Amino acid sequence: IAFTFRPIPKPIHRDEVWLQNATPRKLDGYLAQPGPNGENQTYRISDQAYELIAAYGIDSLIFSNGQRNLDVCVIASNSRESFHDPMLCFPGSDWKILDQRVVNLATKTRGSIPFSLIRAKPPNGEIVLAAYTYKAPLPMVTSQGDLYMQWSRVNFLTGQQYEGAFYRFIGDASTSEAELLKFAVDFMDEVKV
Questions:
Q1: Which residues are registered as beta bridge partners of 170?
Q2: What is the reported pTM?
């Protein structure tokens, strides 16, 4: 019988205020809109979703430049179960996924990041583009399965607790692919999560 002795991992304690302070509020001529009562995030997802996701931070923002709006959501957690698959969540919210592909985007601070880029139609809305990626223990990934696999492997090998993040960007119907992806790249260079 073999035993592996590892130090007990130090717990990571963060909260939503930490996440909001780590997330840019001004970028590329866009400003994050305050919530209806002046809150630091534009909107709050439902309490049921908060309970289901069980992250230590969810930051939901609408960035506006006066002509276009970009919906951005960042989720940070030290539990892999906090991260869900948008390819299930979008249809679960009655969005129709029209197509999906992976694009690799070069950033200044994180190297090349793979993003899932989807074209989708929200209920009673026009077709929009959305992009998302996950911060995993090793490289960034575009699927929940890859995130889970890395998380399990790193936790097994090191015994260390790990932090991950999910980044999702949705343009309005007038936002081009180039505009959405440029904003996503610049956001990833600025966010501290």
A1: 71, 130
A2: 0.92
